[in-house]
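Cont'd.
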Amino acid sequence: MNTAIWWIRRDLRLSDNQALAAAMHQASMVIPVFILDPGLLNSPYIGQTRLGFLFDGLCALDADLRRRGSALILREGNPLEVLHTLCLESGAESIFAEADISPYARRRDEQVKRELPLNLLSGVTVHTPEVLRKAEGSPYTVFTPFSRMWCSLPFPGGPLAAPERLPVLPPLPSLGIPAIPRHPADSPFPAGESEAQRRLASFADFTIYRYAEDRSRMDLDGTSGLSPYLRFGMVSARQAAWAARQAEAWAKNAAERQGAETWLNELIWREFYAAILYHFPYVRRLAFRPQLREISWRDAPADFAAWVEGQTGYPVVDAAMRQLQNTGWIHNRARMIAASFLIKDLLIDWRLGECHFMQHLLDGDPAANNGGWQWVAGTGTDAAPYFRVFNPMLQGIKFDPQGAYVRRWVPELTTVPNDFIHAPWKMPADVQRRVGCFIGKDYPAPLVDHALARERALNIYKVKG
DNA sequence: TTTTGAGTTGTTCGA
DNA sequence: GTCGAACAACTCAAA
């Protein structure tokens, strides 16, 4: 009997899984294994929040496997050694896995491939970074031509269905899945493939059609909320892109079509940053643009701590950081505002912010997170106009017009009138007394003056850029 | 090889 | 309140 190992990494799903499909095609016995890799678990880029989400996802996957006659085998240790052992124990002759793009994952897989029959299949992105090159072979570094190329490629077929049954496993030792108490216990992001598929279906049925108008509104649920699920492959990139194309085909008018198209564009951005990290792995450590590697960032631990705690005195920034603390997720617009504040207003190294987001975001993905931070810092792949500095008051007025987002995450501002909700320090003393919110006591005074901080940032960027 | 048009998501200022 | 221009120069992609 032919035995294969299905090595699960960031593809915690049974549907549209090319590695699983290939394993089942190749072998009559398939062993699903997840390896807890100390090299990853001890990384400064992972924290308890995402680890908890991963473990919950493994529980869900195990349950899905058991319903189909199989089960998840969990092991811990160096992946090469673990796979060696498992091959000996099970007599497996081949290993199938979804190819990953992070530098660590690629080094790990190269190492395994030298000693074991590892087959890598695509799936993290719809189109692999290898095929997305310019005519003369070099990788794209500008999004728009990249996206034109992406759209010109034939869509690689419809998503695969989940197998109805999997082979019953021989007796193999497995660890229990560790339990990390989720915070909060009733997370707005329950892990697992069925939840992911339910969300995608619901988003593609309704929300996507208003996505172009609503996606920037922090006070609405106008986004897909799929990022944690895409991060761990509880839904595949191809399933998401396929759903976007379906929605576009079913759109009833231009606005609806625009919604579907805009969301697909976001998925292409995800693929763009995956390709950037694949082709330029140094971006994890250095600015993409060499001219901007020499900025002398401020060493300001107290300011950084205030940012982390959501105590900067700028309501939208603080709401974003507290949403992160409380849910492990931040609305995309709020991410940009909070990131811009750390980099441009506080002049703190974007890599500190990047690391903090990686530690706390459920969707923390090395490629997308790095790309986002470098975009805000202006050190990344785009034209990077040095004058792009978000104004937290203006952004609040535009994208949280009644202050509902701020009040949800910064409860001490609940009673502040709408006119002051994005600049509460402007409340006259009698208003502060009337609403019972004293600036400097109940809520911090602004950490910096935005207008001054903006000038400071523009000057520094002007010199370096 | 040279040339040309373009480049996610911003803000401020003055008319 | 709204609108367009200015905010630098540079690099990329493609013809």
